[in-house]
Amino acid sequence: MTQIDYYFWMNSDWAYLGADRLDGIARKHGIRIRYMPVDLPDVYARTGGQLLGKRSPERQAYRVTELKRWCKALGIHVNPTPKYMCPNADAASRIVIAADRKGLAVTPLYKAILHAEWCEDRDISDIAELRAIVSALGHDADDLLAAAQAPEIETLYRRYTDDAVKAGVFGSPSYVFNGELFWGQDRLAMLDAAITESQQIASR
Q1: 135 HSE (CA, 13 A, CB side)
Q2: How far apart are CA 136 and CA 83, in angstroms?
Q3: Is-above-0.90 flag for pTM?
Q4: What pLDDT does 2 receive?
Q5: Annotated catalytic sites, by residue?
Q6: With DSSP H G I counted as helix, E B as strand and the rest as coil, what are the percentages for the chain, rounded to 5?
Q7: What is the SS3 assignment for 122-160?
Q8: How far apart are CA 63 and CA 177, in angstroms?
Q9: Do residues 163 and 45 lie in contact, with contact meaning Cβ atoms separated by under 8 Å?
Q10: How far apart are CA 119 and CA 146, in angstroms?
Q11: Between 3.40.50.300, 3.40.30.10, 3.40.50.1970, 3.40.190.10, what CATH number should domain 3-202 receive?
Q12: Between β-strands 3-8 and 32-37, what pairing exists: parallel, antiparallel or unpaired?
C-alpha cells in the first residue's frame, strides 16, 4: 500500500501547524500515514543540526517571524515562546507510538500533545500532563501509558530515529513519499502534487 512516511518531533511547532493538512492530503488520496516520532536531538547530532537555543540570535528571531506569518496564513495560534519550550519528548513519543500500535487515531493525539505545549503552556515531559491529555481524548490512560513503557516501544522509537537519518531526514516535520523527502509543513503542497502525479501515472 502506498504510504507517507511521516517523521516528526513531539516538540515540533511546525508539525502542529501541518497536522491537519497532512491528514487531509492522506484522506484525499486514500493513502496511509506511517507515523514515526523521532528523537530529533539525536537526529541533529548525526546530521549537523542545532537545537533552537544554540542557534544564532538572527536565526531565532527569524523563526518567530516565520511562525507569526504562518499562524496568520493558516488561522492557527501558536505561542513562539511557551513556558515549557521543547522539554524532553521521549515519553510523549512513546505514547504516540503505543497508540498507533493499538490502532488508535494518532493525529488527534499528537496534535493534542503539541497543542498543550504550544498553546496552553503545559509541560509535555510531565507524565501527569500526558495522562490528562490522553484521558481528555477518551482513552484509557493507565492502559496506554503502561503500553508506552514496553521495551518494544522504545525499540521502535529508536528504529524510527535511525530510519529517519537513513531516509535523509534532518528536521521536523519531514515527509517521505516514494523515496522523495519533503522537509517542512511549507512543502505539503508539493507532497500533495507528488502523490497526485504518482497516482495519475499508476492509473494510465
Answers
A1: 8
A2: 21
A3: yes
A4: 84
A5: 12
A6: 60, 10, 30
A7: CCCCCHHHHHHHHHHCCCCHHHHHHHHCCHHHHHHHHHH
A8: 26
A9: no
A10: 27
A11: 3.40.30.10
A12: parallel
| Residue 19 · residue 107 · CB < 8 Å | yes
Rounded Cα–Cα distance for residues 37 and 159 (Å)? 10
At 49, list the grid cell: 543540526
- How much is the pLDDT for 31? 97
CA angle 14/23/118 to nearest 5° reads 30
pLDDT given at position 1: 55
Residue 103 per-residue DSSP state: T
Length of the chain: 204
The domains of the chain are located at 3-202
How does DSSP classify residue 32?
E
How far apart are the C-alpha atoms of 173 and 187, rounded to whole Å? 10
Residue closest to 174 by CA, chosen among 44, 53, 66, 27: 44
Element containing residue 174 per DSSP (H, E): strand 174-177
- DSSP, res 71: H
Mean pLDDT of each 10-residue bin along the chain, 204 residues long? 92 98 98 98 97 95 97 97 97 98 97 98 98 98 98 98 98 98 98 96 89
DSSP state of 173: S
CA torsion angle for 130, 132, 135, 136 (degrees, to 10)?
A: -110
